[in-house]
Amino acid sequence: MNKRNFTILVIDDDPTDVEILRRLLEHIEGWKIKFLVCNDAETGREEALGCQVDLIFLDYLLGVKTGLEVFHEIRKGGCPLPVIMFTGHGSEEVAVQAMKAGVSDYLVKGRITPDSLRLVIANAIQKYKMQQKIGEQRKGLLDAEHQRVMMESVAATCHHFAGPLTTLLTNLQMFAKVENIKEPENRSMFEQCLKACETMKMILNKFQQVREYRTRPFLEDLKILDIGLGSIYGTPGISEDETNHTPRPENQ
């Protein structure tokens, strides 16, 4: 990290301390730093929640709020960026509280040097990047486990569904061969039942061919498993062309 461009947000209500920090940062060789300043807790919190910076310097004393309170608000707002807290009066108790809360580091004004700043900033950003990478890896593992469970559930459902459906479809096909249903209304109802069973068998076959967990939009806030079909009866997932095709009865 000998050469690096940074954008740093400083939340501090003391202009003198802000200027001192700016000059210290300017003395870090090889670093080009864009310096953003907020002189009150509320403005600083809003700026931090935009997450458009690399690092946040947060003063412990900010008028009616403490830096720890602002830090918790930033985290609750969803900003994961590294935060370095600093204060004009060193307090071991405050330092412990800050570190336990998740602050990247704690500095005392008046004891800060360009070298210490370089080390603290480099460590904070490196730790943040490692945490992000670990988070991505954990998410990948969770997604893989979720996919495995879903695929096993699909396989189990197909297994238990196939037997009753085969029995129902076979009996309907046999019934169609031996019975002469003359009444148009009854005949229409029977054909609808037969076609519905054949459609269900086609869908079941599609489910049995699924090899990866992939979803598609269903409702505004809901997705369903994509089994490679289009849409039927207004329900995404089955295509009209496929369902209009009636498979031939299986040889008995």
Q: What would the keywords be for this entry?
A:
11 strands, 2 domains, disordered C terminus, 7 helices, 252 residues, alpha/beta, five-stranded parallel sheet, Rossmann fold, two-stranded antiparallel ribbon
Can you characterise this structure?
The chain is an alpha/beta fold. It has two domains: 4-112, Rossmann fold; 145-244, no CATH class. Helix content is 54%, strand content 19%. The protein has seven helices and eleven strands. Strands 2-1-3-6-7 form a five-stranded parallel β-sheet, sandwiched between helices. A two-stranded antiparallel sheet has the order 4-5. A hairpin with a 2-residue loop joins strand 10 (231-232) and strand 11. Helix 2 (41-49) packs parallel to helix 3 (67-76) and helix 5 (114-178) packs antiparallel against helix 6 (184-209). It is rod-shaped, with a radius of gyration of 32 Å. The relative contact order is 0.08.
User: Can you identify the CATH superfamily of the largest domain?
Assistant: Response regulator
Overall morphology = rod-shaped
* Second rung of CATH, namely the architecture of the largest domain: 3-Layer(aba) Sandwich
Outline the low-pLDDT stretches: 231-252
Secondary-structure-derived class: alpha/beta
In round numbers, the mean pLDDT is 82
Secondary structure topology:
Elements: E1 4-11, H1 15-26, E2 31-38, H2 41-49, E3 55-59, E4 61-62, E5 65-66, H3 67-76, E6 83-87, H4 92-101, E7 105-108, H5 114-178, H6 184-209, E8 215-219, E9 222-225, E10 231-232, E11 235-236, H7 240-244
